[in-house]
Amino acid sequence: MKRNLFDLTKEELEEYFLNIGEKKFKATQVYEWLYQKKEFNIANFSNIKKEIQTKLSNDFSLDLIKIVKKQEDNLTEKYLFKLLDDNYIEAVVMHHDYGNSICVSSQVGCNMGCKFCASGKLKKVRNLEAYEIVEQILVIEQDLNIRIKSVVIMGIGEPLDNYDNIIRFIKIINDAKGLAIGARHITLSTSGLIPKIYELSKLPLQINLAISLHAPNNELRNKLMPVNKVYNIEALIQAIKDYLSVTSRRVTIEYVMLDNVNDSLECALELAKLLKGLNIYVNLIPYNETNSGDFKRSSRNKIMAFYDTLKKAGINCTTRREFGSNIDAACGQLRGSMNKI
Ligand code: SAH
Ligand code: SF4
Question: How confident is the model over 302-319, as pLDDT tens digits?
């Protein structure tokens, strides 16, 4: 099968051109066509000679993932995509006053099995290739005629369980001749695959890291997130400390507010103690109730009381605006409705 042209980093494309006896700046020209001029027909790459155009067409495909369904309200659009092998994934666009952001999926399904998560109900079928993540952005930009300014990797899947393709994806969208999305506008969220967090810390990429913590102790986190039985809280906090000490990057702690599960003031105090002195901030996420009905969203009052307790204890804290909750579009709750179409 031909490789998809959207799967190549600029360096790989340069290598390709050198291998076929061409100058490597051709890679920059191709990148400009694809990512800046949004020209997806090789025959229209007018500064590339015909012979090379034919070679490119023979060696690469430019097949795009297809939009099969779109749900929208005034602030978000949720897209259901069909991949070339008939698997389905989702992405969400959020329109903020500072620009458009997108939440992309990294895998078909997820193996981490978090109890509250709709994505985790579907076992991982396969990893997404880098081009399938790049194309979530390109196809949506084309559909809405917009530019995406920031990217969160918080859709279906555990990105660090698809490490190589995620890094490739980040390099492609971050490239100045690619989509030129600044590293500080890219956030990767993980349930806490510690060895990969260490790997990530060694890369010269200034992306933001978000850690899905969701509980202040092992007893509770074990119940909510099976991954904690392999990588427990103490090891995770140590990994965060090490990450902060070798990078100057921002770490966010995600904490989804589950009614009567992890939202007590005792939990808030325990969380504050755990995170004291770390250069992080906590993002309290209102839970989007899923069909299974096992968990309920904490009330606004409880979330505010939790927030106040953290603040008083000196922890930086925000609450996520509830984008998309009315169309069950928020990141982390994707894929739930897919089987119904
Ligand atoms: N697998 C990665 C990234 C995808 S999930 C991770 O777990 O971090 C993105 C975020 O959405 C995670 O913090 C996840 O815990 C949260 N999430 C999952 N289901 C949710 C729901 N129903 N409502 C709100 N947030 C949810
Ligand atoms: Fe997977 Fe993240 Fe959902 Fe957990 S919260 S099941 S890691 S997508």
Answer: 999 999 999 999 999 998
For residue 120 and ligand 2, the question of a CB distance below 6 A is answered with yes
Does residue 86 register a pLDDT over 60?
yes
Give the pLDDT confidence score for residue 76 in this predicted structure.
Answer: 86
- The finding on whether 117 has its CB within 6 A of some atom of ligand 2 is yes
Atom of ligand 1 nearest to the CA of 157: 1
Instruction: Please give the pLDDT value at position 328.
Output: 42
How close is the Cα of 157 to the center of ligand 2, in Å?
Answer: 6
List the domain range (segments joined by +) for residue 44: 3-61
The reply to whether 93 and 201 lie within a common domain is yes
User: 150: which residues sit within 8 A by CB, 6+ positions away?
Assistant: 99, 100, 101, 102, 181, 185, 186, 187
Q: Which residue has the higher pLDDT, 312 or 321?
A: 312
Residue where a domain terminates, one of 19, 36, 61 = 61
3-state secondary structure of 94: strand
Mutate to test the pocket of ligand 2, among 106, 107, 114, 236 (most ligand atoms within 8 A of CB): 114
Of the candidates 82, 89, 17, the residue with the CA atom closest to the CA atom of residue 53: 17
- Alpha-carbon distance 80 to 139, whole Å? 11
Mark whether 44 and 114 lie in a shared domain. Answer: no
Residues 42 and 77 in one domain: no
Q: Are 21 and 86 members of one domain?
A: no
Ligand 1 neighbours (beta carbon < 6 A): 114, 116-118, 154, 158, 189-191, 212, 254, 256, 285, 287-288, 290, 330-333
| Residues 26, 45: Cα–Cα separation, whole Å | 11
